[in-house]
Design goal:
The chain has about 200 residues and is of the alpha/beta class. It is about 50% helix and about 10% strand.
């Protein structure tokens, strides 16, 4: 089976596209269940994983404090979360012979797997992103744009910290899709075509 990884800007509908792609192709879709499996597989509290999953990795001083006074990077919550999530992504890919993976640096974790389709979904319409955010999140209309920008910053910094790749850069993906001009169903159809369905 094919593997599709989807990175997305917040409020662009990337999760919705992934869900529609899964329904269209019958491919398994992995998102928050990656965290539950990682907790189960590695004995890490789900709350710790959620607090460190795709979240902002801060300044050098913040990183050093998170990695401990002795500089033990591997015992830090940030590293343990990334390790548990990345190993879980690999296991899920192997167990299911493919699937759709949302975020979590899966495009880099699974690089070298063939066939792999790497997708970045964004929306050039902040109004659309705000509307989606207001429908799904407990945030006021006045704070929605700032909320979106902060979520994008968290995802970008997390991705770039662990991969050394630039989040959203065309060179790192097979296709970029703009949900402001291509609806969710059409995005799913395009990705399905690229994956050979």
């Amino acid at each position: 089976m094919k593997t599709v990884t989807i990175d997305r800007t917040f409020g662009s509908g990337g999760r919705e596209v992934a869900a529609r792609l899964a329904k269209m192709t019958g491919m398994p879709f992995f998102d928050n269940d990656i965290i539950l499996r990682a907790a189960e597989n590695f004995g890490i509290d789900v709350g710790v994983l959620k607090n460190n999953d795709e979240h902002y990795v801060g300044s050098l001083i913040y990183n050093l404090s998170m990695f401990g006074a002795n500089g033990d990077f591997e015992s830090s919550p940030v590293y343990r979360t990334y390790f548990a999530v990345s190993e879980t992504v690999r296991r899920l890919r192997a167990e299911n012979d493919g699937g759709i993976f949302l975020g979590r640096c899966a495009d880099v974790i699974l690089q070298g797997d063939a066939p792999l389709v790497r997708v970045f979904i964004y929306s050039s319409s902040m109004d659309n992103r705000i509307a989606r955010t207001l429908a799904l999140e407990d945030v006021s209309a006045e704070k929605a744009e700032t909320f979106i920008q902060n979520k994008d910053k968290q995802r970008r910094n997390y991705y770039q910290f662990f991969t050394d790749n630039k989040w959203g850069a065309p060179v790192n993906y097979d296709i970029l899709l703009n949900t402001a001009t291509v609806d969710y169903d059409e995005c799913a159809k395009i990705i399905a075509g690229l994956a050979g369905f």
